[in-house]
Amino acid sequence: MTAFGITPEEQVELDKALHDALDPLASAIRSRLSGLPEDRKGEAEPVEVALSVLAAWKVVDTEVKRLTATAAGTAGTYGASYEQLGSVWGITRQGARKKWPEAVSRPVSANRTVELCGGTAEVTREPGSGGWRWTGVGADGTRGAAEADVRYATPEEAAAHAGAFLKGHARVDGAAMRREADDLFGTEDRVGDEDAWGRGGD
Question: What pLDDT band is residue 27 in, cutting at 50, 70 and 90?
Answer without folding.
Answer: confident
